[in-house]
Every structure is written in C-alpha cells, then in structure tokens.
Amino acid sequence: MDSHYSTNLPQLVFTPQQLQQYEAAAAKHSGVSMQELMHRAGSTVAHWIQQHYDEKKRVIVLSGGGNNAGDGFVVATELRQQGYDVKVWPLVAVHTLKGDAATMYERFKQSGGECVQDASLHHYHIVVDAIFGIGLNRALPEPIADVLAKVNAAKVMRIAIDVPSGVDAHSAQVHNNAFNAHHTLTFIALKQGLLSGRAKTQCGHLWFAPLAIEQAFYRQCSAVACLNDHASMMRKRPVRDQGSHKNNAGHVLVVAGGLGMAGAARLASEAALRTGTGLVSVATHPDNVQTISQGCYELMVHGVTTAQQLTALLEKANVVVIGPGLGQCQWAQQMLSTVLGYEHKRLKVLDADALNLLAQHPQRLTDCVLTPHPKEAARLLQSSVTEVEANRFAKVQELARSYQATVLLKGPGTLICSADKLTINSSGSNALASGGMGDVLSGIIGALLAQGVSPHDSACVGAYVHGLAAQQASSEGSKGLLASDLFPVVRALIG
Ligand SMILES: NC(=O)C1=CN([C@@H]2O[C@H](COP(=O)(O)OP(=O)(O)OC[C@H]3O[C@@H](n4cnc5c(N)ncnc54)[C@H](OP(=O)(O)O)[C@@H]3O)[C@@H](O)[C@H]2O)[C@@H](O)CC1
Ligand SMILES: [K+]
After folding, report:
1. Where do the YjeF N-terminal domain residues begin and end (predicted)?
2. Cβ < 6 Å from ligand 1: which residues?
3. Same domain, 383 and 403
C-alpha cells in the first residue's frame, strides 16, 4: 500500500468533475481496482493519523452517504486495528450506502467496529470528516449543518478526508457551517476549489496523497490551472545584467494620491523602486509632492493638474501604475481617462480607485493588469461580494474576458487570469496586515512589467513575492504588519 503524502503540492490543478470523469480510467491504467483505490485513500488517512497522534487518542469519524464515507470506514477499521478507540457517527443512514462504500461499512462492522448516534464530542480528541467529498452539490442540510456547527466549536482536532464537507471543490464556495479543518488530505489530483478564497483557509494545512495513480490521471486530461511554486516564480524574476544602467531597467509612472492620500502613492512608487525599476516618476495632486518625496530622493515627484502635464510624463515612462489613493473626483477621472486614452502602447496596472472609476464606465482595455479585491471585482461585474466569493474562478475569468485584461483577484489563493491562463498563488495571505498592502502589490507588478516580464507572469510573480514577504515579515498570526515592512523582504526576494 502506498501511503505517501506531503504538503509539497503539485502544480497541476483540476476540477472535481475531471476527477469524477477520469479517476476510474486512471486507476484502471494503473492496474488498481476502485475498491483498492478507496482502501488506499482510507489507509493513507489512517497512516497520517498514526504518524501525528498516538493510539491513546479517541477518534470519531463522521460519515455521509457516498464514497467519501467509504474512505471514512476504512480509516475507522484501520485505526481500530492499531489500538485506537474509534467510533463512527453516521450522519446519513448506513443502509443507503452503495457499492464499495457499503462494502467498507460491512468490513468495519465485521471487524467489531461500532456506530454511535449523537456522540458527546468532548469525549473525543480527533474528528474525521467523511461526510462529503467531491460529490457535494448543494448547501449542507439542517441536521448535518447543526452537527458541524458543534464540531467546529468543539476543542478537537479536525481532519477532513479529500475535501472539508460543505466546501465546493469546484467553485471554492463555502456553505454555512462547513467543516473547519485543521488538516485536509486530498487524493489523486489537486482540486481548484480547495486552493482559493475562504475555502483555502477552511482546509487548514493541505496534504496531497497521489495514491500512486496521479501520473496515469495526468495523462487522461489537461489541468485547468497552475498552482505557482517557489522555483518557477524565482525563475521568472527579471535578471539585471551587471553592465546595465538605470535606463535599461524600465521607467514606471505611478499616477496616484488624491488630496490627503500621499501615503498610497508613496507605497506604490517605493515598491516599484525596491523591485528594481531603474526610474520611478510619480504624478500626484500638487499638495502631496513634498510628503511623497520626503526620505525617498530617488522618486521624481510631479504635481499634476492637467491632462497635458500627465501626457508629458506618459511619454517618458514604459509602464503606468494608476489608482492607489487616487480618489474618484474630477481630477482622478481626468487622470484615468488620460492614461487610458494615451495613443502609444503603455503597459498599465489599474488598482483601487482606478478600478472603481472603471466600474462606472466599463470598457474593453488594452495592455492592462487589473488588481481588484473581491469588492472591487463585484463593482466591475455589477455583482456582489457574495457572488464573487461563491465562484472566484468563474468571476476572475469573466473579468478577464469582459475587460480584455490580465486580472489578479486578491484574497487567500489569489487568482491570476489572462485569456489563456489561470494561475493560483500559493504563498501566504496578508489578512493580518494593515492597509497599504495593495498599493505595494501594484508597485511590484508595475516594476516587473517595466523590466520586461509578461503581464501574466508579472502578476503571478508579484502576488507570490508579496505573499511570501508578508509571511516572512510577520511572525505567524501576529497582527500589525505594515505595508512598508515588506520592502526589505521584497528586495531580498527579487534581488
Ligand atoms: N470513486 C471512488 O471509488 C473513490 C472515491 N473516493 C472518495 O469518494 C469521494 C467522492 O465520492 P462520491 O462521488 O460518492 O461523493 P461524496 O462526496 O461522497 O457524496 C455524494 C453523496 O452525497 C450526496 N450529497 C451531495 N451533496 C449533498 C448535500 N449538500 N446534502 C445532502 N446530500 C448531499 C449525494 O446525493 P445526491 O446528490 O445523489 O442526492 C451523494 O449521495 C471523494 O471525494 C473521495 O473521498 C476515494 O476513495 C478514491 C476512490
Ligand atoms: K470530507
């Protein structure tokens, strides 16, 4: 039996529908029966529990009505054999089980295993979720949702088999009272819905167990997305030739900082410098000039009030970052329409208020990277945050299509979508940080574009470096990380 598992995740990402469609063929090509596959899945989880918790721990397995429950009965049977005190609490009547799941239930009973109803959770140390896996197709029904609310509130270690119940492995939608796992062991291939948004946090630590059929599976169908990893992101960083000078490393123009919003402009422009741009200019409200320049003499800061003044600056730059602290007043509108209407090709990063203004007058764009958080994405799509979070994958694709742009949808497991590519970011989230993190991200992406990295790769490397910097700059779980704390880490990562 192969019980290999790891937190090193593969880069190839699939939909649960692809798993449903091709896993049987992959198993067949690997000479493995479906029953053996279920046995491998359950044994892997049992092995994982043995590796992490000794047999004095009391375990309860919650079972459902499909094959996920079959995995759960294998876990329970194997742990009992290893001396654990294990019970199964069926949340769907066991007589409805079919096929291999029914067989695994029979084996559990025959081995002396016991089912309980309405268990007292405080008696157990570990709860194993074998209710729903990739077969979840609607919200959790009342009795199951009620049980999971209690499980989530209890002081227990929660381990999900394949998918935390209540998480939609396709859309990343998290239904009410979904199982809040400390660890999730997922099988055969990575499912997109576990990697982004709230679903990502709902999985806790994600472990991948290929069950020794992943290669055959990869031959059956093509991945729908790519999970970026450290090595590939580091390879895509711009390389600066030793003999080069400032004019070979791009010129970013940051159009930012309405009245009273100098900080956002400074964060974005300093981030562009710290990410290796040769020259960085800032076009801002005249009252901000001194504040932005203070302590960062490398920035060329211009107070701008007219389209002509901005056009003169656009001529010198090769990339424009527009939006941080821009506001939505007449001045801001004029700045955005001048940038979007500029006749020569300039790569552009649109962030913050540039996105809010764009949402008021949607249009197809050229050479743009958009970096919305879910609320800005909702405005751009005339939708709601709930709808965006209920299907981050479809929404980022819709944005990329409607605006003809590369779109980076922020949040845990940031998504980056261009016409032909979907990438999921794997580095940390900055949920505990203060404001200004987005400004830094737009500056980093602008810098990468200015140094010749493609729009899609700039957004991917930017998201990765930004997330990793947030992770490294703060100790785990600590609040109070400042956006400017990222600068030294970004420099070290990009340099
Ligand atoms: N194929 C294999 O042999 C292998 C499979 N493996 C394992 O199997 C898992 C997939 O199994 P699965 O396809 O049976 O789906 P699963 O998630 O167990 O549940 C489906 C059942 O739930 C029901 N249902 C759905 N949503 C519901 C809701 N909200 N509320 C109430 N009911 C709901 C649905 O009912 P229906 O829609 O038919 O009414 C159906 O009865 C996979 O994740 C992995 O763990 C591994 O062992 C490897 C080998
Ligand atoms: K599960």
Report:
1. 19-219
2. 23, 34, 37-38, 41, 64-68, 70-71, 100, 132-141, 161-163, 187
3. yes
